[in-house]
Design brief:
- Helices cover 37% and strands 22% of the residues.
- The protein has a 4-stranded mixed β-sheet, with helices on both faces.
- β1, α1 and β2 form a beta-alpha-beta unit.
Length: 161
């Protein structure tokens, strides 16, 4: 069974030309991470929107790059297929290029990293206080797996596809 990926844009945020390439990458990423028969929604937004969510749900009044909201409920679609809705990923398109510059990587690589990061959180993983740092290999399980999956999926592109 495959997975269901719903990709959308915040109102008033221009749709990037590469948006249609998100679903195929996330499908590959979900398979690599062991998801099966699961549904995830991805929303691309601006910094003001993600800051509002970060303040509302984490009591942090700053924009961030990615937020994940676990769901875990199941439902049956019109064809009788049962899906587990693992949750929602929200990514700021304004923070994305800032991250790419900080990590001295392409925006495509950083977008893939953020998507993987969100998926791993939805799969119940947490990285505590550890964060990815330029030139420093992660020590913890979640971020190590994130970077391993990113390496495995390096031939898949979103922005360049």
């Amino acid at each position: 069974m495959s997975n269901s990926i719903l990709v959308s844009m915040q109102d008033d945020v221009p749709e990037p030309s590469w948006l249609s390439h998100v679903e195929p990458f996330v499908q590959s990423a979900m398979q690599a991470a062991g998801f099966d028969g699961e549904e995830v929604s991805i929303l691309f937004c601006n910094d003001a929107f993600i800051q509002q969510l970060n303040h509302q749900y984490r009591d942090i009044d700053n924009a961030t790059d990615v937020l994940s909201f676990e769901n875990g409920e199941s439902y049956e679609d019109e064809h009788g297929t049962v899906w587990k809705s693992v949750g929602d990923i929200v990514i700021s398109l304004e923070t994305l290029p800032k991250n790419a510059a900080y990590f001295t990587c392409t925006e495509d690589e950083e977008l893939k990293r953020l998507l993987l990061h969100g998926l791993l959180h939805l799969n119940g993983m947490d990285h505590g206080e550890e964060h990815i740092e330029p030139g420093v290999a992660p020590a913890g399980e979640m971020l190590s797996l994130q970077e391993k999956l990113l390496s495995q999926l390096q031939d898949k592109t979103i922005m360049n596809g």
